[in-house]
Sequence to fold (282 residues):
Amino acid sequence: MAAMAVPEKEIPNIKTIPRGPLCEGEAVIFFDRKEREYLKRLERGKRISIRGGMIAVEEIIGLEEGTIVRSSLNEPFLVLRPTLAQLIPNLPRRAQVIYPKDIGPVLIWADIFPGAKVVEAGVGPGALTMALLRAVGSEGCLISYELREDFAQMARANLAHYFGPAAHWTLKVEDITLHLEETDVDRIILDLPEPWQLTEMAWRALRPGGILLSYLPTILQVKTLVDSLREHGGFACIETMESLMRFWHIKGLSVRPQHRMVAHTGFVTVARRVARADKRQL
Ligand SMILES: C[S@@+](CC[C@H](N)C(=O)[O-])C[C@H]1O[C@@H](n2cnc3c(N)ncnc32)[C@H](O)[C@@H]1O
Fold:
């Protein structure tokens, strides 16, 4: 299917700079007394249902972030705009997202910078897409490949509802292994099962010094990818890492790690594209 810039008319008028009183169309997150999170959108004329109680959207539009509101059951909720770290785990989805703990390292190890030309595949619900769009800024561009039309639609809807206008985003509903056609790309970020199929194509698409980053759930996949990059000879500085993030419970004298943590999610592998493919680089 053909490449598609996201049509402007599908994007509601939500603010690109999330500041000032809460506006119609924006996403907000409610926190209850136990700090449980409820992601909602401010659609005028509608009522928000939380934990059996209702809140009219008109009561929330115009409030400052950080206000306490009460539902029809008199239950208090703190209302804020979600940060990306709060938004991503709450995104509507039918495919796994990359979690905030891994998105931080992805952005820094891929060295995403404002103005960068970045290619991404696959998109899934669009969690990483949002972080990449924010990092490349309006002077950069993100070209995203997604194999499945239904996932592409979900990503378009999530971006429109929870991210806002993104004129610097192009979504291609295509198999990247057949169609990667960009050149002079600064960074390629792959979240798909067999990235080694793209070793030669990624080398051709990247500019010298560009970065290929792959996110993979199992170490056997990582091994196949790294072997393929080394065998190709066109990549250097190949590194693989994972990140473990442990939250702490701090209340009164109870100061300890939280009982539960998200342990393994995925491995990040990065490599730099060198000028000429040669298996004996140094
Ligand atoms: C785990 S999901 C991506 C999640 C996404 N990175 C996020 O953070 O929300 C993997 C996606 O890759 C897509 N995919 C798999 N192989 C692909 C290919 N060859 N070309 C494009 N997309 C592909 C799948 O359809 C799926 O939506």
Notes: The chain has two domains: 27-80, 86-273. The radius of gyration is 21 Å.
